[in-house]
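Hi again,

Forgot to attach this to my earlier email, sorry! This is the prediction with magnesium ion bound. I've pasted everything inline since the attachment limit keeps bouncing my files.
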Amino acid sequence: MGSDPIHDVEEEVKEWAKQKKTEIDVLKKQEHFRREFLGNLSHEFKTPLFAIQGYLDALLDEDGLEDTEQALKFLKKASNNVDRMSYLINDLDEISKLESGALPINPTKFKINELIKEVFESEEIKSKKYQIQLIFKEKYNEPVYVNADRERIRQVLVNLIDNAFKYGKTNGTISVSLFGLHQQVLVEVTDDGSGIDEKNLPRLFERFYRTDSSRSRQIAGSGLGLSIVKHIVEAHQQTINVRSTVGIGSTFGFTLEKAKQAGFPGLPYSI
Ligand SMILES: Nc1ncnc2c1ncn2[C@@H]1O[C@H](COP(=O)(O)OP(=O)(O)OP(=O)(O)O)[C@@H](O)[C@H]1O
Ligand SMILES: [Mg+2]
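Structure tokens for the complex follow:
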């Protein structure tokens, strides 16, 4: 049987139409994300901006400066909102640099145990503030060498630990554990806080995504931390995951490349 040229052309056109439809769907999705992003962005800026405006208006009011104590309180609140805006700008700057590749990853060989201890020291004040204990579950007292960008991994740890403080429970604990995998090291940050409903888990790493409970509890944040963390981990060709149970707590785990040279404990770590 010879081929039917009309049928062949028909198939080609169908294939072309299918391809175009896929392209249009991708563009529509991008447009949706762009609109959502701009909407979120203006909301995140408007909230502190209106607050600042409100406090300044109150101060500029006829007798706004008469009550000095009250005036100082308003100035402090206005200043907190300026801080909130500058954090937001920093985070956005960070995301756009990470996305455009303007912040290259510079891997070096370093001891992840040491970095964790350094981060714990810098988080001591928060540990007191939130009355949450930080525990490093070191299974072996040997250095664990990894190949990664030390400063970026510090940022990942700080973000995950800060979340564990914010969404953790008073008098609770945050533990960091290390596990040896075949060619990787798994770092886990576990809290015994509010936990996250299963339905929220798939969207947790999206820009600006925050769960309803963290919004309603008015915990400060703009929902950018975890998207920065994910970018950094993925820029290392590694992965990040979360598991959580409401009322019990959450565990965020990310992998790092094990440094090839000696220094890693012979025995595999186990949970
Ligand atoms: N350890 C955790 N326990 C419970 N919920 C969490 C935890 N970590 C993150 N979440 C939820 O995931 C959301 C997104 O986290 P993310 O770090 O991206 O943003 P944020 O902490 O709200 O703000 P930002 O980090 O930008 O200051 C949080 O708002 C919170 O709802
Ligand atoms: Mg955060």
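Residues 117 and 221 are 25 Å apart (CA to CA). Residues 5-100 form a domain with the Helix Hairpins fold (CATH 1.10.287.130).

That should be everything now.

G.
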